[in-house]
Design brief:
Blueprint (H helix, E strand, L loop, with lengths): L1 H5 L22 H4 L5 H15 L4 E5 L5 E3 L5 E3 L8 H11 L4 H6 L4 E7 L2 E10 L2 E9 L6 H4 L3 H6 L5 E6 L6 H15 L3 E6 L12 E6 L7 H8 L6 E4 L5 H12 L3 E6 L4 H9 L4 H14 E11 L6 E9 L2 H9 L5 H6 L9 H10 L5 H7 L4 H5 L6
Parallel strand pairs: 7-11, 7-12, 8-9, 8-10, 10-11
Antiparallel strand pairs: 1-2, 1-6, 2-3, 4-5, 5-6, 12-13
Helix pairs in contact: 9-10, 10-12, 12-13
Length: 394
Amino acid sequence: MFENWYGFAPIFDIDQEICYIIRNTSISDSLFMTPESPVINKFLQLLDEVINNSLTDLHVSVGNFPYIRTPNRDVEPVESFGILSNNDVLRIIDFTGSINTQELEETLEGMNYIYEFKWNRFRANVSKNNEWLAIAFRTIKKKVPTAESVGLDADMLNILNADKGLILITGGTGSGKTTTLVAMLDYLNRTQHRHIITVEDPIEYIFQNQKSLIHQKQVGKHVSSFEQAIKDAMREDPDIIMVGEMRDMETISAVLTLAETGHLVLSTLHTNDVVQTFDRLVYAFPAQMQSQVRVQLALTLVAIIGQLILPKIDNSGNIAAREIFMNTDATRNLIIEWSISHLYSIMEIGKKEGMMLMDHRLAEMFTKELISYETLMSHVKNPNILSQLGIIRS
């Protein structure tokens, strides 16, 4: 239970004034800004505790207690809140986002938006599960993350010296892809005189121009789609374009074309390793186009940075583990010939080119006492590598 983890018992008789917050809403103020809406009052109190305890995620869904993600990455129910009904979840959606809930119930598509509460921002994703609605709230840190704060080393920052091509950040859900991407943009903003355009859904961090000029576009608000925004960007004199996520064939195709035309493009992909990344990109296209896509990838790709989020050995928080794939003459040929299973062998001996296998990164982090042996073994793909690196089971 929530109170067992953090030593508090939620009190839900909050003042009416707390409801007067910065937000977008499609429902009249009189409906939800009064004590006659107990679920909203309870929700705001719960959100307060999420903020006060520096939690990352809050999950709200029909037929369940709210769930929070604890600092050790477990998901725990907030039983004192009570079970949420369908009307409860609809009220929370209406209160936190300008969304037509009737239309939402009829569509199969999820929706994203930003919710602001007491000068804190949350990324909200509304989805449908077993015909019922669910909302995932992700805390957005107030400060734009920096390269230093997220642990980007010199090899990763050197990648950003590329004048053109495609840089991908990959990983599973909750692996910090967006945080790493934003930290890279912050580094570019502080160190280079460039025109940077971002295409996001939704905009999470607000950049202030430093050495660079940054224009941020939100899909659904400023532009109709990722694909259209990318096409528009080509006429706006950009040096660098950040595409929040490559979700479909049309967006992938537009990104590859953009990288071919002399721009530096940064984006993310929901994949777990280098080979899966190539599979996802190429097999997004019909068979007759895949040969052309392989050539485009071989010629435009600069690097892939894949990452995991792991608990620190001292339980003080989490830390990112990152592998690096650099596209070289040798790897270009393998991509064109579609012999991508051999890429790992090149990465294993490619340290001079700035490459790093995830297994090697995990071993390094264990040696530096950043992660535990249990964490190492639960994520390493080839345990034989550990004995080669001199790591013996404790």
